[in-house]
Specification:
There is one protein chain. The radius of gyration is 27 Å and the shape is rod-shaped. The longest helix has about 35 residues. With about 120 residues, it is mostly helical. It contains 3 helices and 2 strands. The protein starts with about 25 loop residues before the first strand and ends in a 12-residue tail after the last helix.
């Protein structure tokens, strides 16, 4: 059976129970994406660790809810992108902390250690 472009033939559709809910995008998926983006953008400034961590925790909840909904909650692509950006944000935070520690150690190595007495004292 052929149909017009954009239409799905009725033979390919699975029978659907009338009480089944309509598929809907999970709102937590959008929140994970937004928090992951914020974590990635502020990752070089140490404050990116907070939204990235919240995004990862929220993504675990969203995955559990999507699994329990048996396919009626969508938004998996948004969830994956948000998780990736959150991990990138955490990596950027770790890089900035390591750079700050290295700069601090180099600064301390160049300064004299202990008391700096005048030349006329023993």
């Amino acid at each position: 059976m052929t149909t017009a472009a954009g239409q799905v033939s009725s033979a390919q559709q699975a029978p659907r129970h009338p009480l089944d809910p309509d598929p809907a995008r999970a709102t937590k998926a959008r929140a994970v994406f937004a928090l992951g983006l914020l974590g990635m953008l502020t990752g070089l400034f140490i404050g990116g660790v907070v939204p990235a961590t919240v995004a990862l925790q929220l993504s675990r909840q969203a995955r559990r809810e999507a699994y329990a909904s048996a396919g009626f909650l969508t938004g998996g692509a948004w969830l994956r992108r948000g998780e990736r950006m959150a991990w990138i944000g955490l990596v950027l935070v770790a890089v900035s902390v390591v750079i700050a520690v290295v700069i601090g150690v180099v600064q301390m190595a160049g300064s004299p250690f202990g008391h700096d007495y005048p030349t006329n004292m023993d």
